[in-house]
Amino acid sequence: MSQKALVLQALKKGQKITPLDALKRGMGMRLGAHIHKLRQQGYDIRRNMVKRGPSRVAQYYLAG
Q1: Which of 3, 17, 24, 39 could form a disulfide linkage to 28, CB 3.0–4.6 angstroms apart?
Q2: What residues have CB less than 8 Å from 18, skipping those under 6 apart?
Q3: Is 37 exposed, middle or buried (0-12, 13-18, 19+ CB in 10 A)?
C-alpha cells in the first residue's frame, strides 16, 4: 500500500494526523504533499494548528 493510501485510510477512519504521526506510522516524511494530492482528488481535508511543546504543528483531518 502506498504512503498516500495509508494517509487516506487513516483519515477515512476519523484519525487526525500530524507530520510526526505520519512518520512514526510509515506514511513518510511528505505528509503535506500527500494531503495536497488528496485535496486535488476532491477530498475535503482540513487543518488545525496544534501546540506540541514549544512549537505549533499542522494536524490534518477529513471533514464531514
Answers
A1: 3
A2: 31, 50, 52, 57, 58, 59, 60
A3: middle
Q: Which domain holds residue 25?
A: 3-62
Q: What's the rounded Cα separation, in Å, for the pair 47 and 58?
A: 6
Q: Which three cell numbers mark 44?
A: 475535503
User: Grid coordinates representing 31?
Assistant: 505528509
Q: Based on the structure, what is the number of domains in the chain?
A: 1
Rounded to 5°, angle at Cα 31 from 52 and 51: 10
The predicted model scores a pTM of 0.91
Q: What is residue 59's three-state secondary structure?
A: strand
Q: What is the pLDDT of residues 8-58, one digit of tens each?
A: 999 999 999 999 999 999 999 999 999 999 999 999 999 999 998 999 999
